Amino acid sequence: MSLPPELDSDATQRQYQKENKEQKDSGGSKRTLMGWLQSSEVDAANFPSVLKVLEDNKDDLKQTLNCCRAVIKFANNSIKVEQSEAWLKATEQVLLNIDKYRSSSDLPKKEKIPFTDLYIAKFSCLKVRNNRNEEAKECLIQAIYLSSSCEEKIKAYLTLAQYYEDISEYNEMKKYLDKSEKLCQTKPILENYLAHVWLLLGHYYFFQFNFRLSMQNLMKARTKLESILKNTQNKTKESEWTYRRLSDCLHYIGRIYHEHYELVKAAEYYIKAQRILEENQKKNLLEKEPRATAFYHLRLGQILEICQIRDGAREHYDESKNIFSYGVSQKDSKSDNSKIVSSGSVQVYLALANMIKDAPTSQSKSYEPTLKKQEAQIKKAEEDSLKTGYYRGYLLALLQLFWLYVRNLKFHLALPLVWKALTSDEFKKSGGVLLLYRYAKKFIFGIFYKIRFLVLLKLHSDKVLYRCHCPIHQNKQYEK
Predict the structure, then answer these.
(1) Distance separating alpha carbons of residues 305 and 313, to the nearest angstrom
(2) pLDDT, position 166
(3) What is the pLDDT of residues 237-271, one digit of tens each?
(4) What is the DSSP letter of 286?
(5) b/e code 391-425 from CB counts within 10 Å (16+ = b)
(6) What is the mean pLDDT of the chain?
(7) What's the Cα-to-Cα distance from 112 to each of 64, 115, 448, rounded to whole Å?
(8) Residue-range domains of the chain with CATH
(9) CA geometry: angle 302, 306, 311, nearest 5 deg
(10) 97, 168, 169, 219: most buried, per Cβ within 10 A?
(11) Number of separate helices (H) and strands (E) present in the chain
(12) Is residue 193 a contact partner of residue 176, using CB atoms and an 8 Å limit?
């Protein structure tokens, strides 16, 4: 323990240490723990202080339930690479103490132990290591097994569905969403969870390229979430959850318009989704969502690239890359977190690969160096996708590399990629032949949408973006 600089005598130092010990023994740490539990703040800057209090109380079994509540409250918000390992250790310590607490005859057993939330907190910390983490999945299986209410079971089901979404195992995702929807229908009071089910069904159908059903579910989710916000009396915890989901819902509606090359509408929804988060950060104590903000910049960059506003696109891509890379740059070098690669950062690198062709090169023989740079960046994204268990990203990288070779008439390099993709485990886990059929259908319709967009671009239609409408670039013009 470091001492204040004015404590320069041995006697004073001993007195300071004695007082500090007496304060701790008389309940100082307990009061601090209760203070954190009663606080509405969930700020990453406070995490070290909370962890210190948990460490101080780890040997006090009387504080087991309070430590459990603190871990649940803060650990789920610690999904930054540099903090997840510390919270994982704290969560495991609490689980160890719970076993001692339950076997002790001197402690009250009346209070219910929130096992489901505790195992979900442990899952959140473990999943940071890798999208596909079997130990993390087992935590959710345990959360389902130990759930003591319909609400707890639905919460665990939905978290497991999101896990399967992240690793592109959509059949498993759909299975748990169906289970959740059936449970929600038996308990009308759980309308917030029903909205979440519809939102994730919107995700599911989007990744299956069924944009009609995706839009139907997203619109149902949007209506339900807006109704909850209108009627809720709680302006902190409940509204925080609802604003996050509503923002996600609007973002995916924007993605559907994006797929149809209705880019003005897509940009409007992206910006609206981001505005919901930003406007409510202070009003409702909503914590910043760096991942959502990074995807917002990525999608806006993709729209601007299609509209040939390349400088604006690059600015948004760079901003997205910086946000996705932040956690990795802050990691603890002593842990295994050096292996972590965000699925979002993979998508950014794939997007930036398309921009390499716009980098200045020498007039003579500029074709080959540009091609090699693009090829290297896409292959790096391919490797990173496998490293993080992001199967869909792996297939996206192969597809982008395939079209790069085709555009440059390198068919001898393009054709082996088709076989590589079709025979990969990632292809089977992402849907197999059915995914191929849906992609082919999307590709054919995409040609029509792109031709329509190019005609509108030539006609200078108001359905085409000619500048970025985001708050940062409202007054900034870019030349094509």
Answers:
(1) 5
(2) 86
(3) 567 788 889 999 999 999 999 999 899 999 999 99
(4) P
(5) bbbbbbbbbbbbebbeebeeeeebeebeeebeebe
(6) 78
(7) 12, 9, 58
(8) 32-181 (1.25.40)
(9) 70
(10) 168
(11) 21, 0
(12) no
